[in-house]
Each structure stands twice: as C-alpha cells, then as structure tokens.
Backbone:
C-alpha cells in the first residue's frame, strides 16, 4: 500500500483548515450561542458511527473483499475490541492488538 | 479558589493532564510509524500532526489514502470524524467566548479530546473562575500534551523508517482504530450507533467512491441519537 500517491499536502492543508474551522466554529464565530439539542445529540455519535464503518470491512473481509478474513485476524480484532470495551483503556487494547498482530506475523513466518 | 494565583492554576492544569500522556504518547507513536510505513515522508508525517492535531482523523485519512480513495472522500471522512470538535467548541463557548479573538483562535488550534475533557470538567466544577484563570488552566492542561504529540509522532516516523516496509501492517491501522472504539462505547446508544453503522457499511459495499462510509456513518449517528432519546440515556 502506498499513501504517497495521494496529493498528501493538499489533504494535510485542507484537513488542517477544516479541523480548525470546526474547533473555532462556536468559540470564534458564533459566540455563546448554543447548538440545538438535536444537533448535539447527533454529534455525540460521530466517532462511534464513523470509525466502526471504516474498520469493519477491513477486518471482516480478506483482501479480495469477497471471502471472510482469516480467523487469526478476526480473533485479534475481537480481542482488541473486547479489552477496550471492558477496561475502557485504549492503551491496554493497543497492547493486546499489537501483541496479537506480532504473534500472527511470527506464525506466518 | 478566590485567591488562586495564575501560576498555581497553570500548574494544576499541567498536573491534571500529565496522566493523559499515557494516552497521547502511544497514539502519536503509532501514527508516526504507520504513516511512514504507508509511504509518507518525514515532513508529511509531521505536517499531519502539527497542522491537524487529531489522531483519529489523521489515521482515517491515512487509511483511505492507502486505499486510493478520491481526495474529496478522504477529506469528508476525516472531517466527519472531527465533527465532535464543533460540539467541544460549542460547549466551551459560554466560558471562553469573551476572550480576545487571537486567544480564542489559539485555544481552538489546541482543542483536542483531552484539553476539552479536563477544561470543561473544571469550568463546570468551579464556575466562579475568572476568564483569565480559565484560559490559564486550559494552557496548563495543553502544555504537557502537545509537545508529546509532536515529539512522539517524530519518534514514530523515525522508527517507522527503520522497520522494513514489507512488515505486513494491513491490519495495524484497523487495530489502532478498534483500540479507540472499545473505550468510546460508553452507553447503549453508542453501541447501537456502532452496530448500525457496521451493518450499513457491509450492506452498502456496492456504493462507489467510499461513499458507503459516509452514508453508514450518518445512519449510525441517527441510530445513536434516536436510542438516546428513547432510553433517555445521556452520556
């Protein structure tokens, strides 16, 4: 995989300006006006809606996109999710996932 | 708290945020390594961490760049991950709104999950704080975080260039994301939002230009908001 084929600096600058605009939106431009409840209610779920949609296909399907991923990868993914969910610790989850991936790499030779 | 000095408030913010280094450091390291492994050079990797300062959005962009997604989809998806920043901005505005424009701009650049969480807790707990002490606390909180974010992105990038590129990291980015998702599933509404978006993205795989991601994300957000209303399950 190579991410370098994309227009990297264009993405960095627009993403930077866009993220700053989101952060500055109410502090800078709208003063102490408050977002309507229904908007806030949706914004609360952006992270838990977007990130799982991004990773699910990568984890569930193998690289051809048609067959299920190998069981080892699925187990590491589920273990990482479970540890993160029950311990509420990103670090413990990363550690479990990292060790799992290293183990898979070693097993594949 | 009426007689708290500027200096003591600054150091209180600093101390309060030191434990968060444990969260920020490995994530900066992971981004640096993965971005380098994905083919970005050192200045591009650092560019992301300095210009954007938003780990989840940076990883989103990285993943989609590796999939050769259209630039507009990369930007829309990464910005969608950052939509929560508008919510942070809205909830700090009543406290920091009266500050000068350049200070509000500076706070905005530094408005990350950790600085928002600590500052908003503090402002709610001590509403009698003056504007200048509120700003001082905010800058105290961010002081240990941002240098660690920049510095360990750099360390990660240097480490990444030392690791052979056939290291087989296809699954490393998803694992880093999953490690963020687990702790974020705090309520039933969060869990339902995640489940709905996963089912939607799998069913919508036929939609071109990675737009399935955006549509599934919207479904997930609507599901989360709906469940929160039904259960009165405010996080």
Residues:
């Amino acid at each position: 995989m190579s991410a370098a084929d994309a227009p990297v600096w264009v993405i960095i600058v627009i993403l930077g300006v866009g993220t700053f605009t989101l952060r500055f939106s109410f502090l800078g431009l709208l003063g102490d006006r408050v977002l309507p409840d229904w908007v806030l209610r949706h914004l609360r779920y952006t992270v838990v809606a977007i990130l799982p949609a991004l990773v699910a296909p990568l984890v569930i399907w193998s690289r051809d996109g048609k067959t299920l991923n190998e069981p080892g990868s699925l187990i590491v993914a589920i273990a990482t999710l479970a540890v993160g969910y029950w311990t509420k610790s990103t670090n413990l989850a990363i550690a479990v996932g990292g060790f799992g991936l290293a183990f898979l790499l070693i097993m594949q030779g | 708290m009426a007689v708290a000095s500027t200096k003591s408030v600054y150091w209180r913010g600093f101390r309060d945020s030191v434990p968060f280094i444990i969260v920020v450091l490995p994530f900066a390291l992971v981004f640096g390594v993965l971005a380098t492994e994905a083919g970005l050079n050192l200045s591009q990797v650092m560019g992301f961490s300095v210009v954007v300062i938003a780990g989840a959005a940076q990883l989103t962009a990285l993943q989609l760049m590796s999939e050769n997604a259209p630039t507009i989809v990369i930007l829309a998806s990464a910005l969608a991950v950052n939509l929560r920043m508008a919510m942070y901005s809205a909830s700090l505005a009543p406290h920091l709104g009266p500050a000068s424009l350049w200070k509000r701009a500076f706070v905005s650049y530094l408005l990350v999950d950790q600085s928002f969480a600590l500052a908003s807790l503090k402002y709610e707990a001590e509403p009698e704080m003056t504007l200048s002490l509120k700003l001082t606390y905010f800058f105290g909180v961010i002081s240990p975080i941002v240098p660690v974010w920049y510095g360990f992105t750099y360390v990660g990038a240097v480490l990444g260039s030392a690791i052979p590129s056939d290291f087989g990291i296809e699954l490393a980015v998803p694992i880093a994301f999953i490690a963020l998702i687990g702790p974020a599933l705090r309520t039933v509404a969060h869990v339902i939002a995640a489940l709905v978006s996963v089912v939607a993205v799998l069913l919508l795989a036929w939609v071109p230009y990675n737009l399935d991601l955006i549509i599934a994300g919207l479904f997930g957000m609507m599901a989360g908001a709906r469940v929160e209303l039904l259960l009165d399950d405010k996080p």
Notes: Chain A is about 75% helix and 0% strand.
